[in-house]
Specification:
The protein contains ten helices and 15 strands. It is of the alpha/beta class. The protein has a seven-stranded parallel β-sheet with strand order 5-4-3-6-7-8-13, sandwiched between helices. A two-stranded antiparallel ribbon has the order 1-2. Strands 9-12 form a two-stranded parallel sheet. The longest helix has 22 residues. It starts with 9 loop residues before the first strand and ends with a helix. The structure holds uridine-5'-diphosphate-glucuronic acid. Uridine-5'-diphosphate-glucuronic acid binds next to helix 5 and strand 10.
Length: 362
């Protein structure tokens, strides 16, 4: 079939980015759950730029309307304020199912809600995919490997998760999410994709979401101490959000339907990472050590052989370059708001303790 002549026209508009005009045959109806969040909104930008019809479903618990503000009222864009734990009927071709709080302090804040989001939310999205024969991509996580005893982590590793620890609501929720994806594939023929996402950073991270990248940058830019939990020897491997988005899109449009690690194998101890942020922000801030958090994974690095073989995908942005862009973003956020307070596990531990005390009184 000959492509429509206007298929590559970029139309400059009142919107933030130019949008390709796709022929109706190539234009997909794409649902992005959690599309107002950090990763979701960056994905939405790319899908919109490609000319697809994009519907964002978000309950705004950790997402923010400001992340997708620039698309509101675009004819290809639709925002639905909805919680994935409630069923919804829509006609779509693709579902990127991202909805779930991902920062440890956020997901630990309301563990029951986190479990419901992963379990009921994923069942609802799988039910929708089954009904309308849409392909569905589930964003799983490196957390399915728990505190790993194998390093680096391959997709074949089954993991080492404490099922009743403080991280379990997220880790086990994502693990059962994967289980459901393959049950629906095998029993009902749903076309599934599963991404295991490793630590990701970049513009639109919530500056108060308590993750290490946002905490260290925001602390450094304000001349405050960088808070390292524990001895700083735990490791993480950080990828820039644009690389993750490219990986998710390649996975969705490829034919490989087993889980795929999407991450940058560039690994740092948290102490080294704090020193890198000190250097890049040219701050006078010091590094201080705080108590370690329970069940914190001690080492994490993706083996990305499958992604490079099956998707021809590799991260392209170096950690330093990604950090420069992210520092620039947070500097602007700070200019706008004047001050940003970072959160640590302490704040949420206090909420949980108060809940226990309240229960005793009742
Ligand atoms: O950022 C992500 O993409 C990942 O974040 C979390 O996993 P985690 O690796 O624990 O993320 P952080 O909270 O950023 O912590 C990373 C390390 O830094 C440490 N940390 C964190 C914050 C801080 O202020 N100081 C500090 O030393 C933590 O204890 C941990 O060792 C989520 O659970 C993952 O699902 C998610 O993919």
């Amino acid at each position: 079939m000959k492509e429509a002549t206007n298929s590559n026209i970029k139309s400059e508009s009142v919107f933030h980015f130019p949008v390709t005009t796709l022929s109706p045959l190539k234009r997909l109806r794409i649902l992005v759950t959690g599309g107002a969040g950090f990763v979701g909104s960056n994905l939405v930008d790319r899908l919109m730029e490609q000319g697809h019809e994009v519907t964002v479903l978000d309950n705004m618990f950790t997402g923010s309307k400001s992340n997708i503000q620039h698309w509101i009222s675009h004819p290809n864009f639709n925002l639905i304020n909805h919680d994935v734990t409630d069923p919804i009927h829509l006609e779509v071709d693709r579902i990127f199912h991202l909805a779930c709080p991902a920062s440890p302090p956020h997901y630990m804040y309301n563990p029951i809600k986190t479990i419901k989001t992963s379990v009921m939310g994923t069942i609802n999205m799988l039910g929708l995919a089954k009904r309308v024969r849409a392909r569905i991509l589930f964003t799983s996580t490196s957390e399915v490997y728990g505190d790993p005893t194998e390093h680096p982590q391959k997709e074949t590793y089954w993991g080492h998760v404490n099922p009743i620890g403080p991280r379990a609501c997220y880790d086990e929720g994502k693990r059962v999410g994967e289980t459901m994806m393959y049950a629906y594939r095998d029993q009902a023929g749903v076309d599934v994709r599963v991404a295991r996402i490793f630590n990701t950073f970049g513009p639109r991270m919530n500056p108060s979401d308590g993750r290490v990248v946002s905490n260290f940058i925001v602390q450094a830019l304000q001349g405050r101490d960088l808070t390292v939990y524990g001895d700083g020897k735990a490791t993480r491997s950080f990828q820039y959000v644009d690389d993750l988005v490219a990986g998710l899109m390649a996975l969705m449009e490829g034919s490989y339907d087993r889980p795929v690690n999407i991450g940058n194998p560039d690994e740092y101890t948290i102490r080294q990472f704090a020193e890198l942020i000190q250097k890049l922000t040219k701050t006078n801030s010091s590094i201080v050590h705080k108590p370690s958090t329970q069940d914190d994974p001690q080492q994490r690095r993706p083996d990305i052989t499958v992604a490079s073989r099956e998707l021809a995908w590799r991260p392209k942005t170096s950690v330093k370059e990604g950090l420069r862009r992210t520092i620039h973003y947070f500097s602007h956020e700070l200019e706008k708001s004047g001050e940003i307070k970072t959160v640590g596990p302490g704040e949420y531990a206090a909420v949980t303790k108060k809940r226990h005390e309240d229960r005793r009184v009742v």
